[in-house]
Specification:
Largest sheet: none
Number of helices: 2
Structural class: mainly alpha
Number of domains: 1
Strand content: under 5%
Length: 178
């Protein structure tokens, strides 16, 4: 008989001794129980750990993405606020510049008016001084001319001063003022 040929109806699949079959079944059940109690929980724990790690990684990625979106929105909000503030600062500076310019124009106009007023006052003072000097000169010349015409000395100062004043007053009323 060859080793592949058995005595039973199934041939080589059935052991020759029934005790071998019982020991094989017991050992199979024992190995199955050990694998079921020791190996399967270890594999289940590894599988659960990896699944949790993957889920946690996905959750962390989603959380990081949400934080990035929130940071982006905050950045955009800050950028919009900064743009508004910059616009406001430019507008305020523009208004302040216009106000300073208006104040400087007003100050320049006031200074110009003051200078013109001072110039008018100085011209009036000089005009009065020239008029007084001219009266004295005209009076002196008129007295000298009268002395030459009359041939006598007209040195009476009070009388000659009244004559000169009357003469100049007549000239003032006869000619229009400039």
């Amino acid at each position: 008989m060859t080793p592949l040929e058995g005595t039973g109806p199934l041939g080589p699949l059935l052991p020759e001794h029934p005790s071998e079959l019982i020991v094989g079944i017991v050992l199979f059940i024992l190995i199955l129980v050990v694998v079921w109690k020791r190996v399967v929980p270890t594999f289940e724990a590894l599988y659960a750990g990896r699944a949790d790690a993957i889920r946690g990684g996905i959750e962390r990625a989603e959380q990081a993405q949400a934080e990035a979106k929130a940071a982006l929105e905050q950045y955009r909000s800050q950028l919009a606020t900064a743009k508004d503030e910059a616009s406001k600062i430019r507008e305020d500076a523009k208004n302040a510049g216009a106000q300073v310019q208006a104040e400087m124009r007003s100050a320049a106009a006031a200074e110009s008016a003051r200078i013109v007023q001072a110039g008018h006052a100085q011209v009036e003072a000089e005009r009065a001084a020239v008029r007084d000097e001219l009266r004295r000169e005209v009076g002196t010349l008129a007295t000298q001319l009268a002395e030459k015409i009359v041939g006598e000395s007209l040195r009476d100062d009070a009388r000659s001063q009244r004559t000169i004043d009357r003469f100049i007053a007549e000239l003032d009323t006869a000619s229009p003022q400039a």
